[in-house]
Amino acid sequence: MNSSVLISSHICRNEEVAAGAINAIQKLASFPEGMGIIFPSTKGGDTDLGVIASQCSSLGRVRVLALVVKLFSVSMSAASAIHSLNLLSLLEAEIRSADDTLATLSVFELLYELAEVEHGSEFLSKSSLFQLLSSIISDDSKDSFLRSRAMMISGRLLSKEITHSFIDEPCAKTVISSIDERLQSLDPSNRDEFETALESLGQIGLSIRGAKLLLSGTSPAARHVIYAAFDRQGPEKHGRQLAALHALGNISGETRSENFIILDGEAEENLLRLLYETASRSSKLTPSGLFLSVLQQDSEIRIAGYRMISGLVSRPQCLMEICSRQEIINIVTDPSTETTKIGMEARYNCCKRIHKSLTQSSGVSADPTFAGIAAKLQEAVGMGPYLHRKRGGEAQPIVMTADRF
């Protein structure tokens, strides 16, 4: 069977035939000889995916684009061939056409998949994709779900350090600015889009350069995250607070602070300023009061709070705030605080981070006031995440299905 027959089979209406064809094409693309068959040097032939896509129905075009994404993920050489043939522009063109909302949503799902491909960042960064995503996020006339998907794709792409190596900083700033402006203009009743925007900022904050950009300027985009993280007025804001706390954990370095990587001067100054400003406008008055209020809420919020504290504690001022509040230390050192596996491990990891920061901070650890706290943390770390002395053995975590993955 030649490649043109395989491609024709892939875009047919029969789901089983299409699935078999795409598997065969992927296997063919894994060999150098197969690459020459799928991507012939002569354009306009019966295997030219660009020509085929232009002649297909909406469903056929989506299947051709799905094939492009599958081939892109096969290898670096396949991705390079797709980029040189300008096939990625087919996805952008489908989004810009806006003729079929379902087709557009399908292409967004393909872009989301594409953003996860290991070598995808290099080639996607060379396209006009970021400008397109920014324009969609900023467009009031677009469906809220489309804007949300655009934000999620942007967050996934900018969460990788390598992406920032290939795109210009102004390009990343444009994306962040579009999310910032969307958060400013969103109606409070649009909870889903608001939460998605916060999650997207948190994804961007996973990368060091992304976190720096979120905390740069006189009005940093990260302010939305910090304000929402400690806003618990009403049950309708639970999801918003949860998304913000996880985002703040990412931005502050929960995934980076094993190596205690601190951001640049401006970013660190803005982070602390926003924390203290938020505290001063609340009834808690201090960041330690804010942290404690988070740990006194339900399990979901507490788990996100552990992540946030794990990231923030590498800053001496935050370490002082945490260690100055005995109630915080009591919660993170007590194995009976949590009953789920995820909760127990999140609490324990937070305890370890505080202990590590305390032992490595000469200014704080030398203070005799904190000697008892250091000893309590060390004992809790030695006990592990599950051991509970009062029960004389291991605590039995309640493991939900989702916790296993």
From TrEMBL:
A GO cellular component entry from the record: cytosol
Membrane spanning residue stretches: none
GO biological process assignments: proteasome assembly
One Pfam assignment: Proteasom_PSMB
InterPro entries in UniProt: ARM-like, ARM-type_fold, PSMD5
Organism field: Vicia faba
Protein name (record): ARM repeat superfamily protein
